[in-house]
Amino acid sequence: MFFINKAFILLLLSQIFLLFKKEDLRQYAIHGYAQGTDYSIKYFARDSIVTKGNVDSILMVIDSSMSLYKSYSLINKFNASSNGIVLDPHFAKVMAKSFEVYKATKGKFDVTVEPLVQAWGFGAKPIDKFPDSARVKELLKCVGMNNLSLKGNFLKKQKPCINVDLNGIAQGYSVDVVADYLINKGITSFVVEIGGELRIKGPKPDGTSMNIGIEGPANSPNAEPEVRHVISINDGAITTAGNYRKYLQKGSWKVAHLIDPKTGYPLDNALISVTIYAKDAITADGYDSPIMAMNVNEALDFATKKNMEAYIIYHRKDGSVADTLTAGFKKMIIN
């Protein structure tokens, strides 16, 4: 006589169903160009339920809101206004987060840095020379988020010369918007990457974690950046800020694209790059640049207090390159 355990049979059937369900999932890849950079999306599903057209439409709407390179964008309308305008939901969400990061970093993150970014050659218009000290001093009069206020969806400026640049946070927000679109479509395993900023959700259908390479400058001068570590994660976002890729050079003087809103000059400190792991990409992207303005110990302490993980590459006093990281980031490294 045989006794049948119905609960066991149901559990076995459900596992078999899940196995076949997972085997039905295929990997789909989407590649494109938006926001002045490449993007790449990989996801697992039974069908191509998200297309390149879907993604391009989402990013086009965000560009129409916050791209300085689109003459018709809402951000350019704000910058041209004398006292402010009503924002769309995308712009308003990014500004709300920007105020949060500005306050938490005590002004190291400041979206009103646009006049300085433009003056140093990293804005939407080309320049023929770097600003002198008098010009920097003059531009600093139009910098400071204390000159902005957000009431409802109305962003008010206290001075007509206040202009905003959201390049330090809007790309992370774009990653989150695309990732949330995939989640709403029922996709539970994906990597969304725009310009090197990533949002990950896993594991893969076979149960393995998502592996992400962490790039940094090569040890030898003038060599291409290299993958320094590989991390394994199943949920969250990874973004990197650094001064080794994007810079201008005048003679032997390298001008980094990260501008200190307090001094008006490009950052020139020990940090080379900061990679942040956070729950979402807007948080990681918003904090990676201002953390670059900190010293190594301050950066590690700040990231930990904000429930983020950090991997930092920096110059020692003798000029050699070293790295350090938070305990949580170390646990993610598999190679």
Automatic annotation (TrEMBL):
EC number per UniProt: 2.7.1.180
Species name: Pedobacter panaciterrae
Transmembrane region(s): none
Keyword hit for Iron: no
Gene3D superfamilies the record matches: ApbE-like domains
Cofactors, names only: Mg(2+)
Sequence similarity: Belongs to the ApbE family.
Name of the featured protein: FAD:protein FMN transferase
Highest rank taxon of the organism: Bacteria
InterPro entries hit by this protein: ApbE (IPR024932), ApbE-like_sf (IPR003374)
Pfam families: ApbE
Reactions catalysed: L-threonyl-[protein] + FAD = FMN-L-threonyl-[protein] + AMP + H(+)
Entry's Gene Ontology molecular function annotations: transferase activity
Signal sequence residues: none
Keywords, in A-Z order: FAD, Flavoprotein, Magnesium, Metal-binding, Transferase
Enzyme class of the recorded protein, top EC level: transferase
Database matches in PANTHER family: FAD:PROTEIN FMN TRANSFERASE, THIAMINE BIOSYNTHESIS LIPOPROTEIN APBE
